[in-house]
Amino acid sequence: MLTVEIVIVLLLSLGQSAVYAVVSLVAKLTAGKPLSQQAAVLNASQSARPYLDLTYQLLGIFFDLVPVALALYLLMRDQIPVRRTLGLTADRPGFDLGWGTLLAACIGIPGLLLVYVAQLAGLNARIVPSGLQSAWWTVPVLIMAAVQNAVLEEVIVVGYLIVRLWSLEVPLGWIVVASAVLRGSYHLYQGYGAFVGNAVMGVVFALFFLRFKRVMPLIVAHSILDIAAFVGYALLPHSWLSWV
């Protein structure tokens, strides 16, 4: 029953994203032009009408967090204290912010270099972190989207999945591999470089959680990375963007 539960939770969330990412990569590879000349757009606009687009963006953020609520509910149903087991508390802000910032710096800078090299080698699509139209709500929505990504991925791919696999007595090494490969797989729509970079990030984050039993620093780190990418891209002048 626990195995079935894990499959259902993943297929309702990031496992589903992984399937679509594989299909997207296949579509890019068979499009008749090099992967590096194609774009992978994050945070795409959903409507030409600003307030309708805003509504779609907010609904997307809300519904993407529902699988997190489901995962936490299932853990609590089994009498697992999620706040302590997953480290979902705000009682160690210095630890969470300090480690989160350090992890973001250690992963973000090499990650940018990896994406750049992968695109030069034709192994990655051109990543467009924000496809939203310019409006008063653009930056707040991008920040909310970044935090939503962080909460969804770290709670499910690290906290929930590791706790459940540990309950099934899966060997520690395979737990880390499963978490890392899953993280890399739903980034495949960006290309092979994104898969490798995010898989490495998955190994680091899984080992960190196994050591400290806290996902909060991981949420902080992931939020910093995505906010910098999303908001930075939206605010940079177009002349700079063409050079970058």
Q: What features would you describe in this structure?
A:
It is built from eleven helices and two strands. The chain has helices at residues 2-11, 14-29, 50-64, 66-77, 82-86, 93-120, 138-167, 172-185, 192-212, 216-235, 238-243; strands spanning 39-41, 126-128. The mean pLDDT is 93. The protein has 244 residues and is mostly helical. Helix 4 (66-77) packs parallel to helix 7 (138-167).
Tag the structure with descriptive keywords.
single chain; 244 residues; mainly alpha; two-stranded parallel ribbon; 73% helix
Query: Spans of 5+ residues with little confidence (pLDDT < 50)?
Result: none
Distance between the termini: 49 Å
Percent in helix: over 70%
How much of the sequence lies in strands comes to under 5%
Strands side by side in the biggest sheet: 1-2
Structural class by SSE content: mainly alpha
Radius of gyration: 18 Å
Overall pLDDT, averaged? 93
Would you report the number of β strands? 2
Q: Strand count, sense and closure of the main sheet?
A: 2 strands, parallel
Q: Estimate nothing, just give the exact number of structural domains.
A: 1
Order of helices and strands: HHEHHHHEHHHHH
What is the global morphology? globular
Number of helices: 11
Multimerization state: single chain
